[in-house]
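tool_log.txt
---
The assistant was asked to compare two proteins side by side. It first ran the structure predictor on the initial sequence, then on the second. Raw inputs and outputs are pasted verbatim so the downstream comparison step can read them without reformatting.
(1)
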Amino acid sequence: MSGSSTQAVREAVALNVRAELAKARISGTRMAAKIGIPRSTLGRRIAGEVSFDAEEIAAIARVLQISTDVLLAVPAPVPTVGAA
């Protein structure tokens, strides 16, 4: 996976986590405490600066009572026309 596609995935997952936290009305501070990581660590992940690891995604999904699929959903890339 190229650097730009890795970044796109990291940012999409971060966006999904932020959206689901907002839907559930759970603050980052509260979620960090529930999953046992420092607030600053969660903050870097939900900002898209650092990737979530599998255990963190699973823990967040468990707290939110949603499937990990919701958090890991990444839109398909849009093909560019005439790029040859």
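(2)
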Amino acid sequence: MNSLDTVTILAILVFIISLLDKSTVNKWISTIFIKKSPQLDSLNALIIQRREIEIERNKLSAQDNYARWTKLNRRLDKLDIEIQSISSQIKSSNVTSTATISTIVTILLSSPQWILRLFYAKTAVMHLIPGINTFPKPFSLILRFPWGKYNTVGAVFWAAAIDIVLTAIKNWTVVTKQLLTVSNTNTNTNTNNTNNTTTKTDASK
């Protein structure tokens, strides 16, 4: 695989990555790699236990069954503390895991772009016709940016050109889809109006 093919693939990959929603990627990876916490089962069990005790307490009269009611109330207070403690531990663990995954995702998603900038900054994907020394130097500087040789097309410029073309195609697709949606809406509206007019005409006859 030559440098032109490699840089083209990397440029397309960078563009595809730019379309991804980082938060969605984080959630997707989190559901795959973050194991279910054993504490979560304990938390669910405590919540169910609390709900059962609360139902039992609410059935009692505080005046007629004061001792029993007070005992259940103390158990509820104790469960509330345990639930709060486990919830805090789970939340802290999730925050740490999410931060780690977010960092890894950021590195992975930005790696193709950094590979282009660092390892292909001097790479020429195309060589212009040899012997032409009258090529405008400012334009040549843009083509070979940042450290390419004179009368060459650098990898960074080539990747930027691909990104511009793909972005234009994406925008054209979005606009075309919106126009088709508006056209279909207007067509349906006109059809409904025609049907309503026909119905009124038939009714008048």
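---
observation on (2): The mean pLDDT is 82. Helices lie at 3-19, 22-33, 38-58, 66-119, 137-143, 155-204.
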